[in-house]
What does this fold into?
Amino acid sequence: MGSQLQTPSREVAIWARLIQAQEDDITPQVAEYLLSIAFAENDRQRMEELAERSEAGSLTTEEQTEFDSYLHVGNLLAVMQSRARVALHRKPHDGSH
It folds into this structure.
């Protein structure tokens, strides 16, 4: 099991809990913005390089820390985007009580 699952960074874990704890619906505009966030091509290439080297067991300690950081941020982004997709698929309230 990767270290990203065993020891997530405290900041990312806290942010993920904050996002998951929110009971208010995300507005469609915020949801669309969250879904538009993506890693730049150079970051994707770096993550792929680090992943390949990780599989080969050839990461330095610094590179492992960098790779873990990418994984933590990617996991947080996935949580945020999941909430955004759920918010966009909910039917709006009809306003009646």
